[in-house]
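User: Here's a structure from my thesis project, written as structure tokens. My advisor, Dr. K., wants to see whether a designed sequence matches the one we expressed. Can you design one independently, without my sequence as a hint?
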């Protein structure tokens, strides 16, 4: 076991179809439930409530490892109906959360994807992804592959307060550079940008400069959203560390709104786009037609976690 708080489970299916037109992908998969990275704002926290557990401490301390996930994925990709569509990994829990060091489920999933020449995008705050540079490089030879490192700030206080279980932002940047230098497409997802904490242009400049200096191939961003379940866990910690911001957050997320007002979001993203252009970083990875299956075009993209 990777710790007494990791429970092995067996899944019947792994691929999840997403029917949301604005999303740049149709399929996701998550090798784990729960995440010891313990990001205070994590939108996936409410998923533990479906298991009868709380979205707070239990989400962080009770992790479920889908130990048969690679075998299930292999069967799903063998279906005649499967068209090698892009799969996003890391949309509900980090595929490189600490349990991965022992279980190696994500690594085994990548081997299956390599065998089927299937494109994939990984989103992570972990650095264990360096271990899988060999498989990712092999997969990159036959399919579109991108690794998005979620880094919303490099500010010490904000990082320690909001992402207490994650590797240091500098370590994530070094892992990204290592992948790029080993032939794997990787970039930074400046996410989430937190109102009053990391949504200012100075913070964006600092992250963009660090991303550029560590050879990021693209830069994307998104603004905080607070789902019910996550909000109840986030607000007490916000009150403890940034009490002066509570009135502003109450205005932005009034009536339990998940998303901040459009005007606010657009202003933050406009500032981000100015910064991104200053550092001459594309917002999305480039399309590589030569990687596409015959008669098709595989689109590459960065996905915000």
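Assistant: Designed independently from the structure alone:
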């Amino acid at each position: 076991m990777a710790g007494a708080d990791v429970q092995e489970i067996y899944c019947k299916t792994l691929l999840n179809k997403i029917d949301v037109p604005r999303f740049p992908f149709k399929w996701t998969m998550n090798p784990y439930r729960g995440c010891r990275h313990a990001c205070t704002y994590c939108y996936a926290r409410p998923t533990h409530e479906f298991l009868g557990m709380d979205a707070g401490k239990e989400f962080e301390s009770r992790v479920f490892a889908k130990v048969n996930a690679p075998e299930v994925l292999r069967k799903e990709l063998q279906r005649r109906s499967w068209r090698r569509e892009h799969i996003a990994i890391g949309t509900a829990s980090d595929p490189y959360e600490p349990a991965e060091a022992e279980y190696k489920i994500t690594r085994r999933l990548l081997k299956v994807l390599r065998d089927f020449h299937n494109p994939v995008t990984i989103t992570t705050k972990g650095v264990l992804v360096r271990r899988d540079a060999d498989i990712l490089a092999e997969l990159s030879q036959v399919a579109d592959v991108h690794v998005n490192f979620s880094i919303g700030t490099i500010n010490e206080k904000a990082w320690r307060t909001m992402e207490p279980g994650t590797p240091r932002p500098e370590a994530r940047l070094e892992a990204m550079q290592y992948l790029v230098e080993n032939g794997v497409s990787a970039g930074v997802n400046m996410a989430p940008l937190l109102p009053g904490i990391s949504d200012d242009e100075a913070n964006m400049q600092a992250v963009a400069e660090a991303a550029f200096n560590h050879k990021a191939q693209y830069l994307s961003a998104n603004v905080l959203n607070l789902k019910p379940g996550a909000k109840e866990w986030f607000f007490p910690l916000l009150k403890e560390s940034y009490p002066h911001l509570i009135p502003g957050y109450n205005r932005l997320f009034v009536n339990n709104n998940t998303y901040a007002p459009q005007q606010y979001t657009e202003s933050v993203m406009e500032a981000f786009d100015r910064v991104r252009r200053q550092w001459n970083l594309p917002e999305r990875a480039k399309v590589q037609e030569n990687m596409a299956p015959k008669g098709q075009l595989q689109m590459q993209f960065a996905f915000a976690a």
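When you compare it with your expressed construct, this may help: DSSP finds eleven helices and ten strands in the chain.
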